[in-house]
Design brief:
Blueprint: E1 2-5, H1 10-19, E2 23-28, H2 34-48, E3 51-56, H3 85-97, E4 104-106, H4 120-131, E5 138-140, H5 148-155, H6 179-192
Parallel strand pairs: 1-2, 1-4, 2-3, 4-5
Helix pairs in contact: 1-5, 5-6
Bound molecules: zinc ion.
Length: 200
């Protein structure tokens, strides 16, 4: 069985459409946008007919930066930097899914990810660390070589479902102003054109 770590953003939604994993998992780890990510992930999975599981673990006391509504971490790479976030998410998903027989966890990192924990060298190390343990679970990032617009086009993700996706870093509803919302808008324009079918 293959699972996809899903935030409800463009990248994980496009991967869900493209690869149709056996199940998707969304983590509420106490991030500011958790309710929005959970609602978007649920809506996308329902729309395309994929099983969806949820994890609720409040780690907000350990967060930093805008996603935690806290001061930035010393040494952080961007305002939204949350220390050790991706290894935390993969570990939580693996703790839930390894006992269910899941053999692969896919993550939605893309080529434009700025953080070190979104890059190939990190995922090679994480895959090695996780897979040598019981369950031999693999960690993959199938879209790591593609930009978000390229992934949207290549996957054939329908424009009609874009309205269900959610990329805000700071609120339950898309604020339109944070780096997540701005990137979301730019990527949709790049992938579909500014006014596809006059719908925007
Ligand atoms: Zn926002």
């Amino acid at each position: 069985m293959k699972a996809l770590l899903m935030s409800g953003g463009l990248d994980s939604s496009a991967l869900a459409w493209w690869l149709r994993p056996d199940l998707c998992v969304t983590v509420n780890y106490g991030q500011q946008a958790a309710k929005g990510e959970m609602a978007a992930s649920t809506a996308i999975c329902n729309a395309i007919g994929l099983a969806h599981q949820k994890i609720e673990v409040d780690l907000s006391s350990l967060g930093s930066g805008t996603m935690a509504d806290k001061a930035p971490a010393a040494g952080g790479s961007a305002a939204e930097f949350w220390p050790y976030r991706n290894q935390m998410l993969v570990t939580l998903a693996a703790m839930l899914l390894m006992p269910q027989g899941v053999k692969e966890i896919m993550v939605g990192s893309v080529s434009t990810d700025r953080h070190t924990d979104g890059k190939a060298i990190f995922y090679r190390a994480l895959d090695r660390t996780v897979s040598l343990q019981e369950g031999s679970l693999r960690v993959t990032a199938p879209a790591r070589k593609y930009s978000t617009p390229k992934l949207l086009k290549m996957s054939g993700f329908p424009y009609d479902l874009i309205g269900l996706t959610f990329s805000c870093h700071v609120y339950e509803y898309a604020c339109g102003q944070c780096s997540g919302c701005i990137k979301h808008r730019q990527c949709v324009e790049d992938a579909y054109g500014a006014s596809p079918g006059g719908a925007v």
